[in-house]
Predict the structure of Large ribosomal subunit protein uL4.
Amino acid sequence: MELNLASGDKSVSVSDAVFGRPFNETLVHQIVTAYLAGSRSGTKAQKNRAEVSGGGKKPWRQKGTGRARAGTIRSPIWSGGGVTFAASPRDFSQKVNRKMYRAGMSAIASELVRQDRFKVVADIELEARSTKGLIKALADQSAEAKGVLVVSEVDDKVGYSANNIVGFNVVAVTDLDPVTLVGAEQVLMTESALQAFEGWLA
């Protein structure tokens, strides 16, 4: 299939296997959920009655005091005691096969093309860090600085120039993830990044 550049002056040939795949909502949901789960730190921790310090001695004898029996001052019902169902660090990551992940990324990219939210632009080179320069470079190609710009490698000048544009991010194609693609208002991808992206998913 052919994808027109945003400027409209030429088109590029791309693989149907990457950009012509039907949308698989179940698969996309799975890889997005797995990515978000893998982003969780999972470091929440509390101490149970075995982990808090102290409490080795029985506070008072079992019988004869009139008080409720107690075996430790670190019981969860005591002030300073352990937590009853204490949280512990855990790994939230979910396993997704490489083949499934790539198929899901292809399904997302294909749906973006169908929704006209995916545009190909020529590689951008700036002489200096300049937000106006980046906006103009995109405008010259009939593209708007919004959503995500995917490049083969984040250039220092382009990266810094995009920092001042609200709702616009520059991402290297090697760092592209399903959450970024799904949530982007539009995806602008340079020709060199497109080759790398297609080579990765084909």
Summary: The mean pLDDT is 93. The chain is about 35% helix and 10% strand. The chain has two domains: 2-42+96-201, 45-88. The first strand starts at residue 2 and ends at 4.
